C-alpha cells in the first residue's frame, strides 16, 4: 500500500490569528488532498527565527504562514521559500471591495471618548501599546502616519511593548494603555472572547491598506502539489460548507497574490523602515 502524502505546515501568525483558523486549514487540506498534515506554530517570531537553522533551507517545512514584514526581509535570501500565489481576504468595514491586504485599527477604550479624543492627533502624550517595533500594523504604519502629519516619536507618552496584537488589545481594554494599533484581523476575532463582545473598545481610525498575508511553500514540492494547494484555497468560496467555516474567522475568500504586493510604495516598508518609536537625541 502506498504511503499517504504528509504536508508539514507551520504558522507564525498566532496569536495574531486564532490557531483554530490554521486547524481548519489542516482539515481542508487533508480532505482535499487525502493526505496527512502536521501543524506547528511558533508565537515567538513573525517568521523563521534568524538565530536558528532556517526550516526551508533545512527542508523541515512545506507550507508556512508568516507576516508581510518577515517575508519582505527573507524573500531575497531564501531560494527554497516560494510565495504561493494566493492569500486570505478578511472582512473589514474599510474593505468594501473585498480585496487582499489588511488594516491597522487604532483603538481606544470607550471612556477616552469622554475626554474629547476624536482623532489620532488627540492622543498626543498618551500611553501607547505596541506588539513589536518591526510590525507594519502595530508600529510602522503609525509612525508613517504621524510623520505625514508633521509629528515624530515625541508624540508618544509612555510606550508599552505588549508582545502581540492580542495583548495590545487587552491592555487597552484593561486601561493599562490608552491606545494601540492592532492588526484588524486580531480585533475582529478577539472581540468574540472579550467581555460584552469587546464593546468597550472603539476603533478611532483605520490605517492602511497593508500588504496581503503571505503564504510560503517549499520550492522542492512538485509544481502539481503547489498548483493544487493554490486551487484548493481559491475554490473555498465555491463550497457552502467551507465558506461558512472560514467565515467564522472573518475570511471572505482566498484571492490571487504575487510578489508585486511586497514591492515599492504599496508595501509601506521602505519609507518607514528606519523610523523608531523612541525619539533620538543628538
TrEMBL record:
Any one Pfam family match given in the protein's UniProt record, by short name: Phosphonate-bd
Domain of life of the native organism: Eukaryota
Protein name as annotated: Uncharacterized protein
Organism this protein belongs to: Leptosia nina
